[in-house]
What we know:
This protein is α+β, with helices and mostly antiparallel strands. It contains five helices and two strands; from the N terminus they run βαβαααα. Zinc ion (ZN) binds at residues 8, 10-11, 13, 47-48, 50-51.
Amino acid sequence: MSKKATICVYCGESGKLTIDHVIPKSWYKRFKVPKRMLDTPGNRVMACFNCNQAKANKDPKEWLQEKPERLQHFQRHARYLSDFTKQLAGLLPSAAGHRYSRTL
Length: 104
Ligand SMILES: [Zn+2]
């Protein structure tokens, strides 16, 4: 197993972990993509039971932004996510360009 499996990417909990799909698999219809495109290592993270339960089928971006520390933690530990996943989750800087446009 790689190092990424040792802590929850959302809160840092190191107890019993479960596999979470950042973009819920059931969302393939919403994005009009083949279901298998959401069942890849680039869309899977390790999450503690509590986070996995709390996240469920919520919008990943909204859920992450509910708590700034959760988003920070996620961005620090989920670098192995595919760009495809980040893009769908609205987590790529380019996908949220307007937020950075005023940066000098
Ligand atoms: Zn957690």
